[in-house]
Amino acid sequence: MFHNLKPQPADKILALMQMYREDPRDQKIDLGVGVYKNAEGVTPVMRAVKAAEQRIWEEQDTKAYTGLAGDPAYADAMIGLILGTAVPRGNIAAVATPGGTGACRQAFELIRMANPTARVFVSNPTWPNHLSILNYLGIETVPYRYFDGETRGVDFDGMIEDLNSANAGDVVLLHGCCHNPTGANLNLVQWQEVVNVINARGLVAMIDIAYQGFGDGLEEDAQATRLVASSVKHCLIAASCSKNFGVYRERTGLLMAISADAGQTRLNQDTLAFLNRQNYSFPPDHGARVVTTILTDDALRADWQAELEEVRLSMLGLRQQLANELQRLSGSDRFGFIAQHRGMFSRLGAAPELVEKLRADHGIYMVGDSRLNIAGLNASSVPILAKAIIDVGV
Question: The whole model's pTM is what?
């Protein structure tokens, strides 16, 4: 049987990580892997997470299953964090998932079950796992214009034109905030126009929100998701706690299915639980319990928000420092977009051969499409990166 298996394409980011580890140079910079790192290059355990884990260790008296959908308290806490009061709770079905990737996978499974002919419109570019999973499931994808290679902002006119070619029942996959891989985001006026297109053409909205709190703040980063969820007939939301709680390895995610008709919620909830059963039965609980403990305790939540704000401001500071240094070295403001982008990533818009030159000549590792992880920098490495970018002619 196994001799029929075919080699699968290597994961480009994992391959890049391996190359970085094998590079003997002392002065090398890893801007590829999408993980937050502090100034010391460490992905720390947040203070509130440690405190919550200690409390759970002391108080937890069973490791029994929580249920196919996970602990209801976790769903309630996450719905409150992401949606606030924008959508009545009775209109929301939700299940815990293994990370944001698991939430996306379950959402795509639900789409295929509900409407096998639905196409999924995805931004060009988007997170590679979106396309990988959709292709694996045999769901047709249609790219819509998003990133403007000249301005390094959003090609909004192109985006709207492409979305207006979608058919009723098609799905529009949107990034709730901090677009990955570009860092370029819509403003609220533009988001409202996207909502108008979704409603006018009878489309289904799907939002992947993995970086809430990394952009303009917890509440600000949720505004677009709340606008969409409260304005459309059907909405799917895939959420991740990996970044804003730093619980990457705990695989902590949530999938929501929202219908304007509350009478649909029970069927939605049963279907989500069924899909969990088919894929992994009961979702992991430890990370979800940590998140729930933090979000439902005033002191822990305040400490978590304070540390998350420190993380956000540090990335904004690095963005501004890099933009300023590039302006100084280049004598132009053509890199000002870096300070305007939000989240962990920015896309330089450099050709693949220049990205390779950065690696070969300067030991700077980033994904081939020129996506760089701002959180891979610190105050000392920013000038090194800026000089290398100018030297190779970006």
Answer: 0.96
